[in-house]
Amino acid sequence: MTVRDIRLFGEPVLREVCRGVTDFSPGLSRLVTDLMDTCRLPGRAGLAAPQIGVDLRVFSYNIDGEEGYLINPRLEACDGHQDDLEGCLSIPGLYLPTPRAGHAVATGVDLDGRPVTVEGTGVLARCLQHEVDHLDGRLFLDRLPDGERREALRTLRGPPGPPGPDGAGRPPGLRGTRGAGRGGSTGVL
Length: 189
Hints:
This protein has 3 helices and 7 strands; from the N terminus they run H-E-E-E-E-E-E-E-H-H. By secondary structure, it is α+β, with helices and mostly antiparallel strands. The chain has one domain: Peptide Deformylase. Strands 1-2-3-6-7 form a 5-stranded antiparallel β-sheet. A two-stranded antiparallel sheet has the order 4-5. The longest helix has 14 residues, at 26-39. The chain is globular, with a radius of gyration of 17 Å. The relative contact order is 0.19.
């Protein structure tokens, strides 16, 4: 079992639009296995390749014992509404009500290039949308209303640190938490 380190808020790979997968070599199989293994840890619901530093369009999910992955996923349909707490492994400790569709359908392919469709409501719908957002360089913070987004970013940045030896302030880091819980009973995306 290989568990990969999670890239955190502020790392450029989290803001890049990921490349489509064109090479279905053994390296892709290793990536999918690493995503699945890393997502199986308690409290985790989904994981996209950029969250482990890889700019390819692949994600895994593990919702209430239903697990899988999609390569080159696309959201085909989203309807309804939910506004539940959402968190992100790349933004630890921050959980905010985030507007999402209540029902989602995503399509992609498996390791053999065969078409796959994943359809869900509730947390699975939220996960599909959250992970596809990661592949498009978006974070759940981008889905928040402007005022809430600004407040969340201020919380994350925290106050600048004391000046360093060169007189410049320490760059803001990931600090503080907001909200409660672990993103629901199924884990963090």
